[in-house]
């Protein structure tokens, strides 16, 4: 047993990765890592929480999740006193205070505070989209994007506004909506001090100052600063049909 453990450990040093995924070609230093990775393609989640029946692809993820039900948070941040259920969560959190970004992309040099952020970022370069919707075969680079997409098929809108009862598929949509009630406008123009409830609205407004016109008509080449203006213009070519 010890010899096999030593052999497995020595692969860390030369970077040997003999275990290959036949689906996407990704390689791993240990067979256990390959088995965990395969669940991305198969959608297998063999580890089930007995409290809420939520399922996970890893035993470690299930153990981490169980603390949600106990409410226990024994790991406390020394800077801001925020508490966490797992030591790994605390370790990630402390990088907010330290500004540490130990995970670097070899392609573009961008650095990240969490390894998971780097893994997601790498897919920008590779074009890899390992998360597939079983309903429509659309693929995604992030698991969270797939979860959000699935709600289009299920019609689920789990995020509810306590003010008016409106429901939303995505958490950011609820956050934006709440600002209609509070009047909060967090995104401010540095040129004219006009403020907006969404960053996308600020970006659109900024084009007034920069004169940027990124929306081009394929028919005549005319350019516009807003998508809505292009759509309105396009009806001139289609005879009023959208």
UniProtKB/TrEMBL annotation:
Cited Gene3D superfamilies: Classic Zinc Finger
Example of a GO cellular component annotation carried by this entry: nucleus
Enumerate the UniProt keywords alphabetically: DNA-binding, Metal-binding, Nucleus, Repeat, Transcription, Transcription regulation, Zinc, Zinc-finger
Compartment list: Nucleus
What InterPro entries does UniProt report for this protein, alphabetically? Answer: Znf_C2H2_sf, Znf_C2H2_type
MF-aspect GO terms? DNA binding; zinc ion binding
User: Which parts of the sequence belong to the C2H2-type domain?
Assistant: 19-46, 47-74, 75-102, 103-130, 131-158, 159-186, 187-214, 215-242
One of the Pfam families matching this protein, by short name: zf-C2H2
Function summary: May be involved in transcriptional regulation.
Which family is annotated? Belongs to the krueppel C2H2-type zinc-finger protein family.
| Protein name, entry field | C2H2-type domain-containing protein
Organism whose genome encodes this protein = Macaca mulatta
């Amino acid at each position: 047993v010890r010899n096999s453990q030593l052999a497995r450990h020595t692969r860390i040093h030369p970077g040997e990765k003999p275990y290959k995924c036949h689906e996407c070609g990704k390689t791993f230093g240990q067979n256990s890592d390959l088995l965990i990775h395969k669940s991305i393609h198969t959608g297998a989640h063999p580890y089930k929480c007995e409290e809420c029946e939520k399922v996970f692809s890893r035993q470690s993820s299930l153990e981490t999740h169980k603390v949600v039900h106990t409410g226990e948070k024994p790991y406390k941040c020394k800077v801001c006193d925020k508490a966490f259920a797992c030591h790994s969560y605390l370790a990630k959190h402390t990088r907010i205070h330290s500004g540490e970004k130990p995970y670097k992309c070899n392609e573009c040099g961008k650095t990240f505070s969490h390894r998971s952020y780097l893994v997601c970022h790498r897919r920008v370069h590779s074009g890899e989209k390992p998360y597939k919707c079983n309903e429509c075969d659309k693929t995604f680079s992030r698991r969270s994007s797939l979860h959000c997409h699935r709600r289009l098929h299920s019609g689920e809108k789990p995020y509810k506004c306590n003010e008016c009862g409106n429901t939303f598929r995505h958490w950011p949509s609820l956050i934006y909506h709440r600002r209609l009630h509070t009047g909060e406008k967090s995104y401010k123009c540095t040129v004219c001090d006009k403020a907006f409830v969404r960053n996308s609205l600020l970006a659109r407004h900024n084009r007034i100052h920069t004169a940027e016109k990124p929306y081009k008509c394929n028919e005549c080449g005319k350019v516009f600063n807003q998508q809505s203006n292009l759509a309105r213009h396009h009806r001139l070519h289609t005879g009023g049909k959208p």
